[in-house]
Every structure is written in structure tokens, then in C-alpha cells.
């Protein structure tokens, strides 16, 4: 599967307070022709989701103010078809349990590489397509 041939047709929202990560991910996705919006805070993300739906949301767990998990809780019902990925350096049993309740499909552990990011996203897209085939 060519990951970017699928991602190019998706709207991607990335929320991370680390400027280096935001810029790196923006460059990474834009270089492949993807539509990506990159924000610094969960509060900005909530405001953005009032006007635009996204196919993929990648959000950091540790954010100033509202954390990534709380952000995904607040957006869970409105964005049930959205693929959700949580970036974290603090993966705990509690976090995994809460993420499962919210149907967060993926974790990306810090530090991460472009290869691990691509592998995680490829897996998510394959699973999403598999589920759609089973329903059809």
C-alpha cells in the first residue's frame, strides 16, 4: 500500500505544543501533497473542529491547558469516523485504558521517527479499510 496515495485524500489535523514537532510534521505531510492543519493547543483544535471535519487527528497527550486525551473525549461523539492517534512519552496502563474507551486507534511514542509514524498510519488505514469491507 502506498500510504501517501491514501493520505493525500484525507484532511489531517495535528496538535502539538512543541514547535519543532509541529514544523517537522507539517513539512513531512506537505512534502507528500497532503492537506494538513497544524495547531499548538487543544483549545485551538476544538475551535477548528467547529468549522472543519478531519479524517485523521494526531494529538500530543501533554499539552498546555486541555491535554490530548481530554481533547479527544470532547470531540469523540462528533468525530466517530475520524482516525485518532495520540502522541505520548507517558504511555501508562491508565492512558491505554482511557484511549480504548474513546476508540483511539493508535499511539505514537516519543521519541518517534518518520518510519515509525508511517508504519503506525499505514496500519491504521489498513484496519479502517478492512472494517469498511466487512461492513459492506
Describe the structure.
The protein has helices at 3-7, 19-31, 42-49, 68-75, 93-101, 114-135, and strands at residues 11-15, 35-39, 56-60, 83-88, 106-109. The chain has 136 residues and is of the alpha/beta class. Strands 2-1-3-4-5 form a five-stranded parallel sheet, sandwiched between helices. Strand 1, helix 2 (19-31) and strand 2 (35-39) form a beta-alpha-beta unit. It is globular. The mean pLDDT is 90.
SSE layout and pairings?
Blueprint: H1 3-7, E1 11-15, H2 19-31, E2 35-39, H3 42-49, E3 56-60, H4 68-75, E4 83-88, H5 93-101, E5 106-109, H6 114-135
Parallel strand pairs: 1-2, 1-3, 3-4, 4-5
Strand neighbour order, sheet with most strands: 2-1-3-4-5
Task: State the distance separating the first and last CA atoms.
Answer: 21 Å
Helices, by number, come to 6
Uncertain runs: none
SS-derived structural category: alpha/beta
Amino acid at each position: 500500500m502506498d500510504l501517501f496515495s491514501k493520505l493525500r485524500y484525507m484532511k489531517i489535523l495535528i496538535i502539538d505544543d512543541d514547535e519543532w514537532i509541529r514544523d517537522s510534521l507539517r513539512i513531512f505531510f506537505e512534502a507528500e501533497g497532503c492537506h494538513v492543519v497544524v495547531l499548538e493547543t487543544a483549545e485551538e483544535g476544538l475551535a477548528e473542529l467547529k468549522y472543519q471535519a478531519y479524517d485523521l487527528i494526531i494529538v500530543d497527550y501533554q499539552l498546555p491547558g486541555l491535554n490530548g486525551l481530554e481533547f479527544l473525549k470532547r470531540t469523540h461523539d462528533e468525530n466517530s469516523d475520524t482516525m485518532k492517534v495520540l502522541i505520548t512519552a507517558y504511555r501508562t496502563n491508565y492512558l491505554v485504558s482511557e484511549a480504548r474507551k474513546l476508540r483511539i486507534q493508535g499511539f505514537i511514542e516519543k521519541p518517534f521517527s518518520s518510519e515509525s509514524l508511517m508504519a503506525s498510519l499505514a496500519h491504521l488505514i489498513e484496519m479502517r479499510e478492512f472494517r469498511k469491507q466487512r461492513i459492506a
